[in-house]
């Protein structure tokens, strides 16, 4: 059974979020077509350690074989739990809103927990090499404005960064499913969501076929 890890970085309840509604539709379509194990992580309800002075000092001590404080031991232990869960997944679904041309800060904190030298990438004479090939990432993203065309296309920093950092750890099978323009044209918001749901369904069905 394939493992699907869902990373929710939106603090809103599902019914108030276009992105979460789209994400739930995608997952329902996938589960209707494939026998998958879905595990969910809500970044606003979980302990996601930040890389701070405590963590940097702990890494330095661990590398030197020095004793860690109880706080450092607990923090690194939690970071390793997050990392192992990510590595164990066959498919990772990120559900994000676009905030100020990027994504919520807790998602960056989460990513910092899984970009670990020796575990998800390694250094070689030819440069960094990703270690997580064979996985798939689906990025379900809600944008209030329209950024898929026109003069704002270069401002899709959330998606371009996520695709780049996933590629850095070896995940080249990356897909972005977008629902956008709801704030720009609120009278068409539900119509826009309905169209995005159709695209999400097709994506889920294609993924289900590839799993068989």
Automatic annotation (TrEMBL):
It comes from the Bacteria. FMN binds at residues 98-101. Binds 1 FMN per subunit. Keywords: Flavoprotein, FMN, NAD, Oxidoreductase. Its EC number is 1.6.5.-, 1.7.1.17. It is an enzyme of class 1 (oxidoreductase). The keyword Flavoprotein applies. Homodimer. Belongs to the azoreductase type 1 family. This is FMN dependent NADH:quinone oxidoreductase. It comes from Paenibacillus alvei (Bacillus alvei).
